[in-house]
Amino acid sequence: MSSADIAIAKPDYWEEAVAHLMRRDRILKKIIPQHSETWLTSRGSPFITLARAILGQQISNKAADTLWQRFVDTVGKRPTPSSVLTVGVQGLRQAGLPQRKCEYVQDLAAHFGERRVHPEKWAAMDDESVVSELVAIRGIGRWTAEMFLIFHLQRPDVLPLDDLGLLKAISLHYFSGEPVSRFEAREVSSAWQPWRTVATWYLWRSLEPHTALN
What we know:
Layout: H1 14-24, H2 26-31, H3 46-55, H4 61-75, H5 81-94, H6 99-113, H7 119-122, H8 127-134, H9 142-151, H10 164-174, H11 182-189, H12 196-206
Helix pairs in contact: 3-6, 3-9, 5-6, 8-9, 10-12
């Protein structure tokens, strides 16, 4: 996650969540004030958010940005399911995208184009129901679905236990750098409920180079 994720409008629950976390967690009480001008923002349309997530999986941010630029140069600045399906796998391959990612983003476009997913209903669905619908798409696992819950739907209580950045931050701040299990991470997070998304956000921020805890 980077400073590009920062925007002007705060989620309506943000201040309440911050107050709760600063009362309940001594580590976050130190971290949060160092990032008082940053908060979570929603990212684009559901289709674009998911397409970008698929193309950016398991590669560096720089490589992901390069791949995304090739993608939009090929399908248009505002990609749609129709534009992606029209270009097809071969067209994306010719633009330099990896075969597997081409197949995944085509499957995403097909799901949207054929209305096998229902983005208009997601706001009213609970987290696990949205995850279940998303992981039926090739190339979308639980981590990607949880990032969608956080960055697009802005759900307040998501704990992405498969996120290496979150586990690294918990290890650093709560376990003196020792490896952390998913069970231990969940135990630490119990004090954050019902605002685990917000805690995760600030722990991501704490890994940025300029942050130093005293």
